[in-house]
Amino acid sequence: MIKKILIANRGEIACRVIKTAKAMGITTVAVYSDVDANALHVKHADEAICIGPAPSKDSYLRGTYILQQAKALNVDAIHPGYGFLSENAQFAKDCAQEGIIFIGPTIEAIEAMGSKSAAKQIMEEAGVPLVPGYHGDDQDPAIIKRSANEMGYPVLLKATAGGGGKGMRQVWSEAEFDDALAAAKREAMSSFSDDKMLVEKYLTEPRHVEIQVFCDNHKNGVYLFERDCSIQRRHQKVIEEAPAPNMSEELRAKMGEAALKAAFAINYSGAGTVEFLLDTDGSFYFMEMNTRLQVEHPVTEMITGEDLVEWQIRVANNELLPKKQSDLKIHGHSFEARVYAEDPNNDFLPSTGTLHLLKTPKTNSNVRVDTGVLQGDEVSIYYDPMIAKLIVWDEDREKALSRLETCLGEYAIGGVTTNIDYLRRIAGSTPFKEAKLTTDFIERHNDSISTQTSVEVDKYLPALLLGQLLLEHNSISADSEGVLQTSPWQKHDSYRSNLSHKSALELTVNDKNYTAFTTINADRSWMISIDEREYLASGTLADDILTCTIDGIKARYPIMLNSNHISLFTPQGILCAEVVQPDLGETGEDDHANSVTAPMNGTVVALLVKAGEKVKKGQQLIIVEAMKMEHSIKAPYDGIVAECYFSTGDLVSGGVALIDITADESE
Ligand code: ADP
Fold first, then answer.
1. Are 48 and 30 in contact (CB under 8 A)?
2. Which stretch of 165-179, 296-310, 390-404, 482-496 has the lowest confidence by average pLDDT?
């Protein structure tokens, strides 16, 4: 009987597992790295132990050490979550040796599916349909290339040890092949310490449809239907849904049975996901099997009413599956949107920093937010920058989608840049509403999705100004975490009791300057005049929410102040204003006016140019790896490389000059 579980993970999934374990009366142990000492998963667990410094390899990936701690704490079972040690066969083996239950499939199943090429071999033998390609052991680049040439382009290179879209490259012609293979191998080596590759025919309009399977240790297996995960960016899932739209009962049953066939082929037990590519003609091909709980498992929970973590724990306890196939039914429709700290307007670079403001939509039986962070927490450079998963449910797809849009509109996050508006644009787009789902959806509709919705400044500036005035004049609440106290403009208090006092305030919004004149009335309402228009404004500030009445119209907006920046979270997006500071007259020449800079902290993995070399606008100069992803930095204009400040292997900080380029004015 499992009485105590250690969760060898962090963030939202650790919190998720703890929740179910507690509900089942099981004691929980959290593990954490130094930077996670105050993290939510640590707060939620009954016990917690530090397992090392921030980098994953020194903490969350230290299988042997984690196991030692689990032994010392008399833990019965370890739940690995997803990522980290979840698909590490050696770790599962070590657990078994120490007599601790690994909540996952057998070691043989993990090993069999751990390599995409070995998995394809097994599935081929079991009669599960595969995408044509080469998945052999001979890694001679010439052989891989020959196979690609024979199949015809486009092809897809995949790291056999891959996951999360890493080590994967589309190749559209023979000319691109060598560079693509080298880049995919580099990424695979740094992410998985294994650069073995396979190549597949690249299907141009497939959907990603995956089947949730579950097996127990008594040869029973069921499928909990499908999830459509076609909305992907660089092969990483962005929005997932269940059930898959326009899926016939016959196809559902056919894919479910094929998935079970795959599971039985490797004596599976526990939660597993069999991923398929579904082609336009209804044929489907095995891609891979993930031998763990998936990030997107909540959409399956919402439509089946089952708790998959509970199922995992029961199976690990050697119990029978809680339900038979005929007991399982689909109810309604569910979506999951992954909320990330990243900048959609800057090549989706991860954004790090403090979550100064974090307002989630109200959760209830239709709305679920799975997260591992609270307001005030840091999004660090060390881990995946996912902030939360927003999961919604409703009776049908249309209602569920409308709920998703509403909830995304209610989400307010300040302090880091997020993809929330981007998710809203996808959810609100016509092709998404019409369920025209293909894995290239984002590329195909990129123009409309990436067009930033602009906030009507005139409409919201009075409310923003009111927020600032209230902050200046109210006694500032102590829970504003010192952010406001450090603000220099906050000290310009112009309030005079019983005296109308006019003051001017200068702001910059989207590079445009505004001067507002404000007068406080005896009833503590304000006259705000901007661009010769007058507004009567009153309101209160509490808990980072501005409740206001502007010219008789009431509204509520989350609001955030950080140094001299003020952000109002409007239904159209975030309106940011900078309060203009007195000119301190310091500027001076920028030493690196002609430099390309590092987009964030990372490691140089390839320097592709040298001093004296001529470069063309758009040419790759240097590749920096950060958060396990390669970021290619390109020449902003034609020129000559004047100096390279770093070489391969160097660590670089975000914002530093990497390479100086002198503009080529010869033409
Ligand atoms: P990972 O394990 O890195 O997530 P997968 O093999 O699961 O990689 O593939 C991720 C995504 O890449 C799929 O969801 C699909 O969109 C795309 N993909 C994979 N294989 C193919 C293919 N042969 N043709 C077209 N798209 C593919």
1. yes
2. 482-496
Name the pLDDT band for 664 (thresholds 50, 70, 90).
confident
CATH match of 4-103 with 3.40.1000.10: no
- Give 235 Cα–ligand 1 centroid separation in angstroms: 6
pLDDT bracket for residue 505 (50, 70, 90): confident
Separate counts of helices (H) and strands (E) for the chain: 17, 39
Backbone angles phi, psi at 31, to 5 degrees: -115, 150
288 Cα: distance to centroid of ligand 1 (angstroms): 9
| Six token digits for residue 456 | 């009507």
Pairing mode of beta strands 4-7, 77-79? parallel
- The CA distance from 378 to 354, in Å, is 4
In DSSP notation, 135-161 reads --S---HHHHHHHHHHH-S-EEEEETT
Rg over alpha carbons for the chain, rounded to the nearest Å, is 27
Task: Tell me the three-class secondary structure of 79-107, residue by residue.
Answer: ECCCCCCCCCHHHHHHHHHCCCEECCCCH
Report the residue count for the chain: 667
| Whether domain 135-201 has CATH 3.10.180.10 | no
- Is residue 592 over pLDDT 60? no
CATH number of 207-449: 3.30.470.20
Class in CATH terms, 595-663:
mainly beta
- The span from the CA of 277 to the CA of 201, in Å, is 12
**What SS3 state is found at 21?**
helix
Q: Give the start-to-end residue ranges of the domains of the chain.
A: 4-103, 135-201, 207-449, 457-475+491-579, 595-663
Indicate whether 643 pLDDT > 60: yes
Please list every protein residue whose CB sits less than 6 Å from any atom of ligand 1.
Answer: 131, 156, 158, 162-165, 168, 200-203, 206, 208, 232, 235, 275, 277, 287-288, 439
SS3 label, residue 618: coil
How many angstroms is it from 158 CA to the middle of ligand 1? 8
List residues bridging with 78 in a β-sheet: 6, 102
At the topology level of CATH, where does 457-475+491-579 sit? Glycoprotein, Type 4 Pilin (3.30.700)
DSSP state at residue 489 = G
pLDDT digits (tens, 9 = 90+) for 270-310: 999 999 999 999 999 999 999 999 999 999 999 999 999 99
Query: Is residue 207 flagged as an active site residue?
Result: no
In DSSP terms, 573 is beta-bridged to: 570
- Burial code (b: 16+ CB inside 10 Å, e: under 16) for 78-92 equals bbbbbbbbbbbbebb
Interacting residues of 160 by C-beta distance below 8 A, sequence separation 6+: 115, 116, 117, 118, 135, 194, 196, 197, 198
Give 519: exposed, middle or buried? Use CB within 10 Å, 0-12, 13-18, 19+.
middle
